[in-house]
Design a protein that fits this description.
The protein is α/β, with parallel strands linked by helices. It folds into 2 domains: 4-210, Alpha-Beta Complex (DHBP synthase), CATH 3.90.870.10; 234-326, Threonylcarbamoyl-AMP synthase, C-terminal domain (Rossmann fold). The protein has 11 helices and 15 strands. It has helices at residues 12-21, 43-53, 80-89, 106-109, 123-132, 152-159, 198-205, 243-254, 265-268, 283-300, 316-326; strands spanning 4-6, 26-28, 35-39, 62-64, 94-99, 114-118, 136-138, 165-167, 179-182, 189-192, 209-210, 234-238, 259-263, 276-278, 303-307. Strands 1-8-2-3-7-4-6-5-9-10-11 form an 11-stranded mixed sheet, with helices on both faces. Strands 12-15-13-14 form a 4-stranded parallel sheet, with helices on both faces. A hairpin with a 6-residue loop joins β2 (26-28) and β3 (35-39). α1 (12-21) crosses α5 and α10 packs parallel to α11. The termini are far apart. The structure holds threonylcarbamoyladenylate and magnesium ion (MG). Threonylcarbamoyladenylate binds at residues 30, 32-33, 35, 59-62, 95, 97, 109, 112, 114-116, 118, 120, 138-140, 177-178, 180, 191-192, 220-224.
Length: 331
């Protein structure tokens, strides 16, 4: 199969709709990362997503809809705080988990009685979802465990020849996946941290919890149990206080391979003469660059050495979660 990458042009949406209606999988831009989408009503189409990604069968998918889609067709009621959150944050990088009406394919939620819904804000995503006018089940458009894609080229690198179409909306500005929020209880609970922070949710909903998996428990958001976002090269990770050791590790690798640091701007400035990838200075910058640089790092380095950033507030919760998982750091 030939994989076309199409930027906004006449006919691109009609072609995407044609593929979706035929039960094919189409990759599309969102403001967070690229998604790998299929008709959420079709068992066959949804199963194709799992097969393409090599995704475990117990890791549910998010359903994407356009801003005017009537979600009461899919969900079985919502608490008052959820309606407030929708008007405050949607369209945007917030996924809300609701009791499901069971209308979409059973493969979307993997046997859970809930459904995750997302209304992405990127104009390309909105245009695609409106044209399809179907709920689109979509995970991030990367092979399972690999780094999430933030350009059409990243999607192509993982799925060339396997999907018919990638809708190219440019680089993703958000850079890390949406916040996943459980809206089935008395207060909202964050299942996956992202660009919409706990503080921002609490300011609208009055309160907000963060889910922590207990030993031996089946995770509420199964995706969080898996190793994720890993670059395909060796990795090492150091706190800022052990920069000397990190440099020794670099020198060691440099004898036979090509090491590279991944760190915030302030630390890059201290590492003159070393290969570095600069994450930036603010949490938003680090979110936007993280996956881009992990993909660059794996292409150019034999060993990628991460240094713990000094920032910790707000969006950094999401950035640190992804960074630690990419480097296999226990938290
Ligand atoms: O930004 C994003 O959310 C991107 C773009 C494409 O929209 N999508 C994305 O999908 O990151 P994925 O499949 O890579 O991650 C979905 C996460 C997983 O951790 C999964 O376990 C969780 O959402 N999830 C999906 N349905 C759920 C449900 N019913 N209950 C709890 N967690 C759910
Ligand atoms: Mg993913």
């Amino acid at each position: 199969m030939q994989t076309k990458i199409l930027a906004p042009s006449s006919g691109w949406l009609e072609l995407a709709k044609k593929y979706i209606e035929a039960g094919e999988v189409v990759a599309f831009h969102t403001e967070t990362v690229y998604g790998l989408g299929a008709n959420a009503f079709s068992d066959e189409a949804v199963q194709k997503i799992y097969a393409l990604k090599g995704r475990p069968a117990d890791n549910p998918l998010i359903v994407h809809v356009h801003r005017d889609y009537d979600i009461t067709r899919l969900i079985d009621g919502e608490p008052p705080y959820a309606a407030l959150l929708r008007s405050a944050f949607l369209p945007g990088p917030l996924t809300m988990v609701y009791p499901s009406k069971g209308k979409v394919s059973k493969y979307v939620s993997c046997g859970l009685d809930t459904l995750a819904i997302r209304v992405p804000s990127s104009p390309a995503a909105q245009a695609f979802l409106r044209e399809a006018d179907l709920p689109i089940a979509a995970p991030s458009a990367n092979l399972s465990k690999h780094v999430s894609p933030v350009t059409a080229r990243h999607v192509y690198d993982d799925f060339n020849g396997k999907i018919p179409l990638i809708l190219d909306g440019g680089a993703c500005n958000g850079g890390i996946e949406s916040t996943v929020l459980d809206c089935t209880g008395e207060i909202p609970v964050i299942l996956r941290e992202g660009l919409v922070t706990r503080e921002a949710v609490a300011a609208v909903a009055g309160d907000c919890g963060v889910y922590k998996m207990k030993e031996g428990e089946r995770p509420k958001s199964p995706g969080m149990a898996y190793k994720h976002y890993s670059p395909r090269c060796k990795t090492a990770y150091f706190p800022r206080s052990r920069l000397d050791e990190a440099m020794a590790c670099y020198e060691d690798e440099a004898r036979s391979g090509s090491p590279c640091f991944l760190c915030e701007s302030a630390v890059c400035a201290l590492l003159r003469g070393f290969e570095t990838l600069d994450l930036g200075g603010t949490p938003e910058e680090m979110a936007r660059r993280l996956y881009l640089l992990l993909r660059k790092g794996e292409a150019r380095a034999t060993l990628l050495i991460g240094i713990e950033p000094s920032e910790h507030g707000g969006v950094m919760a999401g950035v640190l979660n992804r960074l630690h998982r990419a480097f296999g750091v226990e938290t």
